[in-house]
Design a protein that fits this description.
single chain, 4 helices
């Protein structure tokens, strides 16, 4: 159970590799995760997964317009 909780907390691209190895103790899972992190870090920057950027202002324009607090025609 502890291994499962550890694995579920990993990033998606690391979790998949760890799950395939079927670790039985947290130490094994941590070693596999660490090794996968090293592999991902060694990839060229073009291949690494970039975090999504979220335009918060656009989000709030949509939310407020749906609640009738902001006229959407002003932003379209």
């Amino acid at each position: 159970m502890l291994v499962t909780r550890f694995v579920l907390g990993l990033k998606d691209e690391i979790r998949a590799v760890v799950m395939v190895q079927l670790p039985t103790i947290v130490t094994q899972a941590a070693e596999i995760a660490w090794a996968q992190e090293e592999v991902l870090a060694s990839l060229s920057p073009k291949l690494q997964k970039k975090p999504r950027r979220f335009n918060l202002s656009a989000y709030w324009i949509v939310v407020l317009s749906r609640k009738g607090m902001l006229p959407m025609s002003r932003y379209t």
